[in-house]
Amino acid sequence: MVIELMKSHASVRDYKEKQLTREEVSELVAAAQHAASSHFVQAYSIVWVTDPEKRKQLGELSRNAQQMEGAGAVFLMCADYNRLKHAGDMQGEAISFDHAENLIVAVTDVGLLAQNLALAAESKGYGICYIGGVRNNMEAISDLVGLPEGVFPVYGLTVGVPNESNEVKPRLPVEAILHENAYDEAKYKTLLPEYDETIQRYYQERSTNQKVATWTQQMATFLRKPRRPDLKGVLAKKGYLFK
Amino acid sequence: MVIELMKSHASVRDYKEKQLTREEVSELVAAAQHAASSHFVQAYSIVWVTDPEKRKQLGELSRNAQQMEGAGAVFLMCADYNRLKHAGDMQGEAISFDHAENLIVAVTDVGLLAQNLALAAESKGYGICYIGGVRNNMEAISDLVGLPEGVFPVYGLTVGVPNESNEVKPRLPVEAILHENAYDEAKYKTLLPEYDETIQRYYQERSTNQKVATWTQQMATFLRKPRRPDLKGVLAKKGYLFK
């Protein structure tokens, strides 16, 4: 059943009006927190944006205005070493989080938390969508919800009653993801063209937003330029110096 | 039911001998891949280590010898822009992944995949454990399983039939994680001491490995020194230059 739920996932960007209650949100967050955490640091926080004006601004800053304004709940899923700084202060220790390891730990902790939260919501019939767009204006978003040193939004997550139903997009074949004992690049020569055909057929046949495109075309176009080149500087201001 | 499954999670480090079959592993991976992926880059790979000699070496290199040798399956959960490089080559484009954004995207993609994989396994009665220890000797581990440029193990994941049953560790209270509209540091002054009491009681009362410790003590001790200071250099050699 859990596996069936996972395999039915498709992002939902259009929601009915119903807002999630505090009780529902607490239940989802409590479940999500039970994901593993590296050395139990629990290096995450969630900012639940309920204020209509803030939601409007957040939507504009993350270039997802319609989706964020229309969602049943809007969450900023944040990496957080600020709480750990408080823990250190309580014990008279200055904690360190300026190394590459700390960024990887925080982004990982947020990832495990977020996927549990997403799946818990989907198990209750809600739709969800991750929003990387919050990394477009991370400083302005930090100001909007008062994120201190050590805290930055890795992505947003919208949740709500689906007002649309999207087809599940075919993933890379398992054999392109799974290597046994040794990484095998050679197999991409046949697997990627096959996958391109699968994706092209999917885009042409799906019920809305049909287009002609392959996966390797999309990836090549998307990644030929650096993405979000300002991010390193913003993270450094947050204390993530990546030493 | 999904929420109950999440809330029952406790890491399992001692497994019965049964090995997962290829069919089972494929089913888990296929489910896991249905997690969202940033711009659909699917920037991950899994190396399933079945060779006994490699498993032994991996266990030693990641300082988890007993657990890795005894598990029903051992996975290296890898960030992967190598496959995307192949996609670019097919389209005559050189792709870029040397910015902070790319590292965050890959670690996030791996996180969502991994948590789905973990939960899918738990839904079938298996126990799981994440192993950050693979970041102790990332270069030697990369050599062991032939990870090329663009691919590094973010963590390991062991799966198997539990040979032990651990109590669920109390997480931070929801109100310490969840902020509404604005991040609120002030509340940690009361919430962290309360949580320390909860954790101290848990450590004193659990059935095995009892100890006297609080969460803030553990965090302060763990984080007063930089962790894994060599990691930035290893990531740079893999092409993750964090520009």
From TrEMBL, chains A, B:
Name the UniProt record assigns to this protein: Oxygen-insensitive NADPH nitroreductase
UniProt-listed PANTHER family: NADPH-DEPENDENT OXIDOREDUCTASE, OXYGEN-INSENSITIVE NADPH NITROREDUCTASE
InterPro entries tied to this protein: Flavin_OxRdtase_Frp, Nitroreductase, Nitroreductase-like
Enzyme class, first EC level, given as a word: oxidoreductase
Gene it is expressed from: nfsA
EC number: 1.5.1.38
Organism: Planococcus glaciei
Record keywords, A-Z: Flavoprotein, FMN, NADP, Oxidoreductase
Family indicated by similarity: Belongs to the flavin oxidoreductase frp family.
MF terms in GO: FMN reductase (NADPH) activity
